Amino acid sequence: MKINIKTEKPENVKSELLIIGHFEKEKFPHPILDKKLKGRISKAIKEKKFEGEFKQIYSVSSLGLASPEKVLLVGLGKKKDFDIEKLRQVAAFTAKIARDGKIKDFRTALLDFEIKGKSTTDRAQALTEGMLLGLYKFTHYKTDKKEQPHKINEAVILTKDVSNTKKGVKRGEILAEATNYVRDLVNIPACDMTPTVLANEAKKIAKKNGIKIKIFGKKELQKKKMNAILGVSSGSTQEPKLILMETNPKAKKKMAIVGKGITFDSGGLDIKPSSYMLDMKCDMAGAAAVLGTVMVAAKLKLPINVLGVMVASENMTGGAAQKPGDIVTAYNKKTIEIANTDAEGRLVLADAVAYAEEKKPVAIVDIATLTGTSIVVLGYSGAPLISNDEKLKKAIKKAADETHEKVWELPIWEEFREAIKGELADVRNLGKGKGYEAGTITAATFIEAFIKKTPWAHLDIGGVGWFIEDNDYVPKGGTGYGVRLLVNFLENWK
Ligand code: BES
Ligand code: MG
Ligand code: ZN
């Protein structure tokens, strides 16, 4: 869907559909349009057929009285509660109505409403994000044409401020396209999204956007003694890949973002029950988010050098699979007891963060579908954030607030470090006790053990990387969580 910008007055637009917002208990913002429609809008409001409750809709056919063929009124709720996230939501909501109505082009007047602390550019970005993210559907594998969603050709945003609107639309497009790309990567089944395929995708993105890239396959990983990664991949016929990208090698500051890329997590020999295994193609959502973020950082020419580290592997049960009780020596020479082969994410990340730290970044942020327990902690609403650095935490929380990709902090206390001490080796990949106590924290604490001194933050997207039902502008399946959050964070890092 192409997004264009025009300065037309709503009553004059020639389009199949015009989308208009209205706040509860406020004056209707387009009296001329109402007058042209012979007062049918004000009548509906007066008769309480349409009161402007959030996402309430009322549609009016203009019957030639005004230029748009149809006017869709959408409730914006109470004026004081309206914010940038509500704008994203209502943008998605109305775009989906237009799609379901097989509309070819529509105009939207949803940019009309001021939001405290937000510029026109911010609002145009949010409106664009909401529309493009909300319209996403993964139908690559459907062969019946009827299953393909109706395509809207054009959405036109009505505005008084063309240049700032344009800027916001451009940013919104870049971010939404990257997020939808990440969703595709996550939704593609594991048979077609192996570590090698992911690495090839990264190459494609690198080439297109002038990003430096280096990929370690099995041989290089063996040479570098990245045995934690190799151990996880040993039960698979697919070669593991460590993908390294740099957006701006000449920049003074480097920020490392590290993503878990388990393209399928069967659990390994500690095999998952079938119902838990079904969606485990999602276990590379962290790496996909890193790839999307790196791509946007390059497109927006961010002044910081983003070092994207994606660690891709399968976790399978083949004859050479790693066994419970095995001990491996990680890249940084620490020894690890494999207490559970299904706690594989922290293992591959152990080598990845240790390697990233050698590159001297100002900080390391890892993003991973690390624990099912993260769903117990925050449901599907936000990502647990665990960090050893106040400044970094604060910056991530701020980015989360602005993008509505929510995070909530959990602590690392000394007893959690105690819980992952090994019996025979230095550390174990599962907390002592039953193993699931504070599972999200012990998993993060394990990663922390592989970082010497660099500020580090961990985002557990076990609950937010993959949705089991549709949610506003996030359809079920891969969510693309992390791209908007991390880009905002990188842009504002000082
Ligand atoms: N990939 C899973 C975590 C996960 C579960 C992500 C559900 C998304 C949805 C991870 O590798 C895993 O298996 N974690 C185990 C750890 C346990 C063995 C300590 C878990 O969370 O159950
Ligand atoms: Mg696992
Ligand atoms: Zn996993």
User: CATH topology of the largest domain, what is it called?
Assistant: Aminopeptidase
Described by the principal axes of the CA atoms, the overall outline is: elongated
Instruction: Supply the CATH class of the largest domain.
Output: Alpha Beta
Arithmetic mean of pLDDT: 97
How many domain modules? 2
List the bound ligands.
Answer: ligand BES, magnesium ion, zinc ion
**Main sheet attributes: strand count, strand direction, barrel closure:** 8 strands, mixed
How far apart, in Å, are the first and last alpha carbons?
35 Å
Which architecture of the largest domain does the CATH hierarchy give at level 2? 3-Layer(aba) Sandwich
Instruction: Point out poorly predicted stretches.
Output: none
**Could you give the count of β-strands?**
19
**DSSP helix count?**
16
Fourth-tier CATH superfamily name of the largest domain = Zn peptidases
Q: Order of strands across the widest beta sheet?
A: 7-8-10-9-13-17-14-15
Rounded Rg: 24 Å
- Estimate the strand proportion: 15-25%
Task: Explain how this protein is built.
There is one protein chain. The protein is α/β, with parallel strands linked by helices. The protein folds into 2 domains: 2-160, Leucine Aminopeptidase, subunit E, domain 1, CATH 3.40.220.10; 179-492, Zn peptidases (Aminopeptidase), CATH 3.40.630.10. It is 36% helix and 19% strand. The chain is built from 16 helices and 19 strands. It has helices spanning 31-36, 40-46, 84-100, 120-134, 162-187, 195-209, 218-223, 227-233, 274-277, 285-299, 345-358, 373-378, 390-403, 414-419, 439-448, 483-492; strands at residues 2-6, 17-22, 57-61, 70-75, 105-108, 154-158, 212-216, 241-246, 254-265, 305-315, 327-329, 335-337, 363-368, 383-387, 407-409, 427-428, 456-460, 466-467, 477-478. The strands form 4 sheets. It has an 8-stranded mixed β-sheet, with helices on both faces. A 6-stranded mixed β-sheet has the order 1-6-5-2-4-3, with helices on both faces. α4 packs parallel to α5. The mean pLDDT is 97. Bound molecules: ligand BES, magnesium ion and zinc ion. Ligand BES is lined by residues 265, 283, 340, 342-345, 369, 371-373, 430, 435, 439, 462.
